[in-house]
Write a structure and sequence with these properties.
heterodimer, A: about 800 residues, mainly alpha, two-stranded antiparallel ribbon, 26 helices, B: about 120 residues, about 70% helix
Chain lengths: ~800, ~120
Amino acid sequence: MSTTSPVRPQRRELLVSRWWIQGGLLVAVLGLFGLVLMGFQTYQHHPPIPDRVVSESGTTVYTGADVTAGQRAFLGNGLMEYGSIFGHGAYLGPDFTADYLHRSAEHVRASYGGDGSDSAQQRTVEEFKTNRYEDSTGTLTVSDAQAAAFADLSAHYARTLGDPEGRTGLRPNAVTDPDEVHQLTSYFAWSAWAAAANRPEKNYSYTNNWPPEPLVDNAPTANTIVWSVLSLVALLGGTGALFAVFGRWNWLGWHGRDQHELRFREPRSVALTQSQKACAFFFLVMSVLFLAQTMLGSAAEHYRADLQSFFGIPLDRWLPYNLVRTWHVQLSLMWVSTGFLAAGVFLVPMITRRRDPKGQALLTYGLLGALTVVVVGSLAGEALGIHGKLDGLVNEWFGMQGFEYLDLGRLWQVLLTLGMVLWVVILFRGLRKRLASDSHGNMPWLFFFAALALPAVYALGLLTRTGDNYTITDFWRFMVVHLWVEDFLELFTTVMVAYVFVLLGVVRERIALTVIFLDIVLYSAGGVIGTAHHWYFNGEPASVLAMGGFFSAFEVIPLTFLTIEAWSFIRLGARRESVSETPFPHRWAVMFLVAVGFWNFLGAGVFGFLINLPIVSYYEIGTALTSNHAHTAMMGVYGMLACGFAVFALRYLVPKEQWSDRLMKISFWSLNIGLAWMSFVTLLPLGILQLYHSVDAGYYDARSLTFITSDTNAMLEWLRLPGDVVFIAGGVLPLVWMSLLGALAVLRKDTPAATNPSHGSEDADDPDLQLFTEVEHHDPDEATAAGSLTPAGRA
Amino acid sequence: MAFETAFIAGYAVLLLLAGEGLRRLGRVSTDAWSSRLFAAYRAQAPEPVDPAGPADWPHSEVPQLHTVLAGVASSAATLLCVAELVRHHDRLAVAVLAPVAALAAVVTGRTAVALRARARAPQAS
């Protein structure tokens, strides 16, 4: 009796050497090992929160429970979106660590004789630097003068945070509960203690002597200086070595093969699946959120230019600074993510050249609904939280969790993670048949793996708990802010951009694959361990500063390298375009990618490295130079990419007679000019001035409202106005309009549909859905390599 | 002279230098193959590709991005100097800021002319 075994589909061979997979995995594992090691150190060496803080005369000043409750009050009231703690947060209000440290040191020194007395200064330094925390009893002893300073500063924070007039950027009467004021003061006092008191058996504080504060003898440590020098060496040496190696060995295998002749399909002749059509609404949501984000950015900017009034309107009653900044920051992630999620869904049928599986469109609309619920729910929750309408756990879960970039309530955070899981399910359903027939190291799988990593890494952010020690919360927070945004989102976008070029027929799949593996190797080496460059001064030990300083320098290398590599993509594209008989339909989508290359180098590379050295960060953290890097990198790279993906997809969704290259041209130039103006006129000079002031007059002073609202700063802030108008009116509005046209076309059913029953199914190729380029093949050797592009490859 | 004035003048000069760099970048080929960085690679590649011509898209258009951003830099320098002149116009401030502002304005004007000429030129691709 014979048995039949099921016939397994033949998988396509791996297109690149197995060494790429093994090398990529090895480096990724090493990078993650470094990250885990730093996590271990975080839990071992964070500054302790004493059970009790007592004065020398025996009175209890504050307790550990007060510190924890103070952190919750700080986050729940949106104060991390007003000022900062340990240098992390927003830049309008003070850094509360530096603020408390400076004010209390002044108070203590005054009580011992004031600034004219050397002994008063010496005694102040001794009191702040000596670590009188007893681990066995959990008790920290402070001097009577320090205890008196605490009482004074409680009154100070009650006045400033609960000001009935507002005009500080916070809503009037923002924090008035005396218990909450006491808890907040306790939190600030604890952070200032950690910033000044020496670590056991070390001659520097828990924060590597940050902030710079002469009153307590806080100055850069040897580690801060030495690792800055080594970081520079790593950058220069690493860049040189990479180019040398790249030049010596023909890794990427770019060769002159121009035998393909392409005919780009007219976009309206490419049939769209129902799930692709659903993407039109994603892009509409994306562009509307983008518009809202820029308007809120303008409002936040106005607070810096004129804190007193919004053209006579008391804006701070309804939209205080910390609320508009919360929304601005959250929306920056949300609109960009919406664009990326949609681009992923949109690409799947083009990758598989198969129709949607059953229910795919329904799931896609479900995802859109879920996304809308999360966006609306989280923004509303944040408003209620900042306005004091929600308290305690309710606020944390439904309102304002309050960590910068993780401001949304935990419920929304969980839902967003689940939404991304649903998105991966949608992608998997679409890709399933294709994945079954392809090697695990080829592009469809890499596309899927890169997508799968997004919810997985974002979920790590759920380990950020408001009641944990700040150093631990920051470790997990940066799993989202850095690892998710700067590494895994970057990887996913690299895969998507590479795939778009492959699908357009301008780059061969093997080359794209090599570039993606190279990206994995470079980012795993620099980006993953480089996450630590955010943790120089937040209570992590010096070893984390060393690893962050050294490895984050390597982050700039792939930025430089991939920018050049991106040029090569475009260059290859240009050659294809020049031989095509039909016009290239994605002129402005590609131009957005050109802009990504420019801003990747300037915004992420140059402006990022400008603030990356530990010694620069020591004086700079939490100033306008960070904002300069954030805007030029986040908008310049991810924003432009999201716009590029949207323009790419809208080209298929918007009817030919309604499509306007001219509007896209205006949008492209306006976004780039507006962004450059924002940086060149305001953020960069302001940041340089603030850095200078921080080194010259002190960090506390450079973060004070007196400095931020000075005439010089106000002039620079106001001069930003023309650029912002160009950015919003010329850059964002055309995108909104074009997205609206795309959505209306879908509503009117005015989009080409894949309805020909004789053409394919979920199990077979559908020529209407297939390529948007046609390839005539002349080189038989190309058949395997080009795979999906060639007639032979369709078999 | 006020620190602010000296800073703005210095920063404006820095912007002009950066703008000049971008303008020069806007004149060189954006074909990676013509980069010196790829010299060793070219020596290894058995089938080097033909360099892309300046008329090939997007190489015909990419330099425009650099030139426009150079224009933004010089316009920013002009405006910053003029705004600073409004705030501080003692003799020394005028002596320092006016020439920088004038130079920045001339550079901006020349950039605008170059961009207009480029826009009027027939599309190469």
